[in-house]
Structure formats: structure tokens, C-alpha cells
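Predict the 3D structure for this chain.
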Amino acid sequence: MTDPTFPDLHGQSVFITGGGSGIGAALTESFLRQGAKVAFCQRSDATPFCDAMEQATGNRPLFLPCDISVTDQLQLTLSTAAKVHGPITVLVNNAANDQRHKTLETDQAFWDWSMSVNLRSYFFACQSVIPGMQAAGGGSIINFSSISFMMADVGYAAYITANAGIVGLTRTLAREFGPDRIRVNAIAPGWVLTDRQKELWVTPESLANHLAKQCLPDPIEPADISGAVLYLASNASRMMTSQTLVLDGGFIAA
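Done. Predicted structure below.
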């Protein structure tokens, strides 16, 4: 699959949370191929991934190890990326953890941890980059939510709650910082077949059942998300803000 080309993304300072695996890895590669200056963070070592990206694209991403649930660590990471690449003008809040849990067995420690990863980190990442975007005359923030909060789904109430909160966060920040020409949008993917999903939850039966409810018959791959994110990052969508773009193959419609 070939991404569309957005010339205005060349040279942009882009930061992606969780940019070394799953959807995030596909996004990192796509932005690198646009000629952007890409920095990303995750907890595990991503040096081999960076080597592979440099070989494949001729453009090496900046990897900064970080636990996004630790706010001051996240803020320092974003500051470091801005010092290396210039003020961040495209922020993609992608990292999340959809660990399953039973509502009646969930304690406060797990709830607080889930919120720190899936919602709190989004807020403080936005807070960290907005001053630089204001100084630059604008920017684009793309927050990853999920169709999970639109469904009558069970088994991960904290994650679902956080994803609903991300849409609220997106809308209020779009209103507050629109005068600075900072656009804030959300992406709500359906079931994307990342390696993690395949290892933990995908079975032939579950996948067949899910695909039967999509309008489109094909499984969603990480690369299928990239084009929409590039569009939201680019001036091609300069009048689009406060929106949630659903990429689920028509599952919700069904």
C-alpha cells in the first residue's frame, strides 16, 4: 500500500507516542517517507526498528525511551524532541493499553494506571507541545481513541471510559486553541490487526464474526490507518478540527 504524498509534511517536527510498534510503527514509517523529522517514544528498546526504518526510508527516526504514565518523564521526552527537531508541530497521541479486566475485580490502582496511560498522558502531551505550536503559528494534534466506547462492549471498562474521554478532550482543546490555528482531531479505529491483537485475542472465529459485521470485508491492518493520520497532520485538512474520524470498515454502521 502506498501512502498519498503531502509535500507540506516535509521537514515538519512530528512526535508519536508508542511509535515503534503496531499502529505507531506504521505511522512512524509513513511520516518518515514524507520527509518529516520524526521522534517517538516507548518503554522498550526500539533501536532495531530505527535501524530498519533508516534502511527502508533513508530517514532515521529519533527514539526516546519513556514511560508515558510518568508525567514528568513524558514532558522531558517531548522537550528533548523539540530541542533536536525544532518545536513539535504534529503530535500523534497513539500509545494505549487495552488490557482486559473484570469490572467487579478492578481496584483503584489498576484504574489509576489505566487512566494514566490511556487519558492523562494525552492531556499532558498536548499541554507540553501547545506553546511551541502557538509560537510556530499553528499545528496539528491527532488523538487516538477507539470505536470501543461507541459499542455495547464489555471486558475493559477503564479503557473504554478513557477513549470516550479522549473525544471530549479533543473537542475542548480544539475550541480553546483554535484561535492559535492549532487543530485537534481524533481517530477512532476499529479492530486493527496488530501483532499484539493477533497474539492475545484474534482467533479464526472471532475475526470471521467481526468481519461479518463490517461493511467492508477486509481486515484492518496498521498501514490502513496511516493515510488518514497524514491527512489530519497536513494542511490538506486545515479547516478540519474537533472531529472524530472513524476507521472501522463500517463496523459501527452495521
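The CA atoms of residues 49 and 68 lie 19 Å apart.
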